[in-house]
Amino acid sequence: MKISTIAVHGGLTDTSHYAAAFPVYLTSTFIQKGPTEFREYGYSRTANPTRSDVEKHAADIEGAKHGIATATGMAAVSLVFETLNAGDRVLISNNVYGGTWLYATELFKKRGVEFTVVDDFNTYDFETAPADVKLVYIETPSNPLLEVTDIAHVAKAAKARNWLLAVDNTFLTGVNQRPLDLGADVVIYSATKYYGGHSDLLAGLVVLNDDKLYEKLKLYSKALGGVLDPFDCFLLERGIKTLPLRLARHEENTHAIARYLSAHPGVEAVFYPGLESDPGYAVNRRQSKGAGGVLSFRFNEEAYDLEKFVKALKLFQFAVSLGSVESLISIPATMTHESYAPELQKKLGITPNLIRVAVGIEDIEDLIADFEQAFAAAKR
């Protein structure tokens, strides 16, 4: 089946009453047959039918065997990091989500885990990697500079050294990019974003094929308790059904806005792998079906006032997050990536005038008109 059909018809079938929408099982516990006869479900922290439905649906979207739904995107990241033991090392992209960076800088050390920051995995010499590496962690496109990593290239190097490769695929989803098909071992999502799509839930997903790794992660999920509750599973399931449709509109709008911003005097640079001029364009085109609905740009503060620009916007709401139907705008240096030290922000190019735009599904003429009036209000 094609992806739009899977989005509508994936997941489990309700065989109790054959409801078209899978039921919400708002129960903490399930009645068992007897002391030696147990049913499929016992306690909702371990498993819940509504969660099983959305987990299978997420795996179906990815063409994968297994899915695990977690309470937040960071719970999904944390679950994968639980595979590490004291003495292990992680190779991690220098340009990752701020919450992931916070975990690495604050929690790895107390767990006896080390990490090495890699500036560019596409040119990294894996022969020089430390001997204690166990996991490679990448985002592509990255947050917030939309840098693209060649997944197959990294996967080949990781597999040759028996390392796990985890890919945060939040920006593109399984609709546009399938890291497992390119050699990754596990894929991570903040399902709060495109999978949910409506700014009304927090959720995470972990998707994989390896049976042994899945059983290990399921056990860790049970022990840690960071599972997705049944009602949010229902909301996430509903979001998945329209994911391909929404994502197509997100991307259509983002391409148009990227072209508009690239030609505007109020913009110094645009970061979006959907533009042919972008350094990541060729690799992203080779490994993905699209470039997603997020871009960043560097604001020209000499000619325009940044604060006036932000405050003048009417449709682009000033808030963190992305992937929802409404358009959002944020400043990574002080919002999503505030956990990065100032010197690291400067090194990476996360400057105070860098603006990240999560483009929604509104009419593109209205979105561009909103930018136009905000630039006009901010002109010095």
TrEMBL record:
Spell out the Pfam families in the cross-references.
Cys_Met_Meta_PP
The entry's family comment says: Belongs to the trans-sulfuration enzymes family.
Can you name this protein?
A: Cystathionine beta-lyase
Tell me the keywords, alphabetical order. Answer: Pyridoxal phosphate
User: What terms describe the molecular function in GO for this protein?
Assistant: carbon-sulfur lyase activity; pyridoxal phosphate binding
List the Gene3D superfamilies: Aspartate Aminotransferase, domain 1, Type I PLP-dependent aspartate aminotransferase-like (Major domain)
One cellular component term (GO) for this entry is: cytoplasm
Residue positions where N6-(pyridoxal phosphate)lysine is found in the record: K193
- Indicate whether Magnesium appears among the record's keywords: no
What InterPro entries does UniProt report for this protein, alphabetically?
A: Cys/Met-Metab_PyrdxlP-dep_enz, PyrdxlP-dep_Trfase, PyrdxlP-dep_Trfase_major, PyrdxlP-dep_Trfase_small
Instruction: Tell me which cofactor or cofactors this protein depends on.
Output: pyridoxal 5'-phosphate
One GO biological process this protein is involved in is: methionine biosynthetic process
